[in-house]
Write a structure and sequence with these properties.
The complex is a heterodimer. By secondary structure, chain A is an alpha+beta fold. Chain A has three helices and five strands; from the N terminus they run βαβααβββ. The chains are: A alpha+beta, B alpha+beta.
Chain lengths: ~80, ~150
């Protein structure tokens, strides 16, 4: 799946967009786990964010499919 | 993206995310119409202090396509609930003190609906649209996450 990061998470990872290998039928939870395995400094992101799948907020038990774009959205601060 | 366009696909809503400075006049002009007796606008401005700290400038980052989609949803809901025309624009990148970071313009038949729709739009944007600000001051910086009243 394609993972996109912003703000603090992008700064810490040093990347904004990359491919992440995940097991078949991985939940958003499992994707976050894989992300933290690659970037241990992002462990806060898995705990303080909401998953987003293909530009929509989704639930942690939602399944990912090949080609999906996934992000983890910490509390926002626009405006 | 720099020019506010009717890319929303609906003629009564306009949404823009842009790096160029924001201007209120084009948004107010977009919502004007003969049926509207009230135009309410909101301007969010970069202020020089936050949580007791002097702020030098702000930097905004966004999940652009999702932020645009969410802003469009908010505008469409406001247009439907209050029967208004609405334009919303958010700026990204580096913003100096005193510059607008977000603008909302709403037109309705009467003022109560215009105020309500405008408030709904800015409040919902601040809760759900994936945009973040980094506060930079002399000697430090921090990404703000979920500050509530900003």
């Amino acid at each position: 799946v394609r993972v996109v990061l912003f703000g603090r998470a992008a700064d810490q990872a040093g990347e904004r967009e990359f491919e992440l290998e995940v097991p078949e039928a991985a939940t958003m939870d499992a994707v976050a786990e894989r992300l933290v395995a690659r970037f241990p400094q992002l462990d806060w992101l898995a705990r303080f964010s909401r998953p987003a799948l293909n530009l929509e907020y989704t639930s942690w038990d939602q399944l990912a499919a090949e080609g999906d774009e996934i992000s983890f959205i910490p509390p926002v601060s626009g405006g | 993206m720099s020019e506010p366009s009717g890319a929303s696909g609906r003629s009564d809503i306009l949404v823009a995310l842009q790096d160029a400075p924001l201007e209120l006049a084009p948004l107010a002009a977009f919502v004007e119409r003969p049926e509207a007796g009230a135009v309410a606008t909101f301007s969010g401005i970069v202020r020089n202090h936050n949580r007791g700290r002097r702020v030098s400038y702000l930097e905004y980052d966004a999940y652009r396509p999702m932020a645009e989609a969410k802003m469009r949803e908010i505008a469409a809901e406001a247009a439907r609930r209050w029967d208004c025309r609405i334009a919303m624009a958010h700026r990204l990148g580096r913003l100096e003190i005193g510059e607008p970071s977000v603008l909302v313009a709403v037109s309705c038949a009467h003022r109560a609906a215009a105020f309500d729709a405008c408030r709904f739009a800015i409040d919902t944007l601040k809760e759900t649209v994936p945009i973040w600000k980094k506060e930079v001051w002399e000697g430090g910086e921090v990404w703000i996450e979920g500050e509530g009243e900003g």
